[in-house]
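Regression report. Comparing outputs from two consecutive submissions.

Submission 1:
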Amino acid sequence: MSATTLNKALERMGYLGRFSSHGFRSTATTLLGLLSYPENRVDLQLAHSKRKKDSSRAPYDHTKYISSRKIIMQD
């Protein structure tokens, strides 16, 4: 699913110009920060991870901090 798909759905729901798919990331980052979650966990959950340039595995490894990331998603 692309950002365009989400933006079109939001437009059809009447949110054109008031909210965008990127707004979900912004909202999640703000709320999780207010809940005192560590920044690195939030970044990983939102796929804004800081990957090592020499690691070919990093883009495919979604298991880092999985236990705490599950809690974040449940909250």
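Submission 2:
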Amino acid sequence: MRNLSYIVLLLCFVGCAKQPAEQGSVPASNKYAEGFTLTQTDSSVIVEVFQPYQRMEITRPLQRIGTMSTVQVGFLYALDAIDCLAAVCNPELIYTPVKGTEIDLGDSMKPSAERVLQAGLDILLAVNYGQYDNLEAMRLEKLGVPIIFINEWQEHSPLARAEWIRVIGALVGKLPQADSIFHEVEEKYLSLSAERSVSPKDGLSSVSEAVSIMSGNNFRGTWYVPSGKNYLAYLFKDAGADYPFYNDERETSIPLTVEETIHYFHDADVWVGAGGNSLAELAQIDEKHTWFKAYQSGRVYNWRKQRLPGGQNNFWERGVVHPEEMLEDVIHILNNAPDSLLHFANRLY
């Protein structure tokens, strides 16, 4: 996979801050992420990204950045580098406040080559979902568009996904700031995980017994649930929940029949990631949703609390940058905490 393509780019652009990239020590290796490495020299930061393999030497902060994923908008916003965003795919899906002057590159699955060229980008942040995306990227690359794949979605744990902020930090000359943000996120996440309960200051008791949890929805007779290598399963485990597939090593979601789902989750205490906006809507989507204990007790949640009327959802932007807030949500859900304490999760009524 790492040999699908090889790209070496020397980037010497004048950046947003119009100053050389901030200097600071770069850790020899990542703590969690496996999809990239960073190496600092006296005058640059070398970024290596895998699947496909790319090597880029960053000597100046980049000024005009395009992205094919809303997740990267969240990274740029966290780094106070949103002014570097010059072009986006599917702008109608972006939750984060942006300038509004960004060039619309079209659909993320096949951006308009004409618009990409028109944007005059220093770099396009691409997403590698498969061979088609590699071919599309190579087509744009032949037109002279510098591209780097941001594959945080391929990481297994929430902290590994969040650590990709370091790549974005290197591109915009804010690597020390990215490291600082990630360190704070990691510290809070690990502290919450160690407690496995909400803070006593919230007036809520610790989880005395593991609360069982279920996830997903019935879609045309198949229920897809997170495998043990999925970031949601990591959240469940780090929150202290009881979940039957922690030891499942599959890279993709686990497809279950309705019968299998009932076997594993009929008596689950809580249900997260439901597809409806209310219990009534969930029942209308599929009557089988009402068969579960979590539905009958009203402990059902989706990830839409920070969602705008147009469907823009901050869960996919801030949530990736701040997994400690996602973990806090799961802990609160297990403790049946008041809805006001939740960041991204929304209880269905």
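Expected: both submissions complete independently.
Actual: both completed, but the second showed a warning that disappeared on reload.
Relevant detail on submission 2: The chain has twelve helices and 16 strands.
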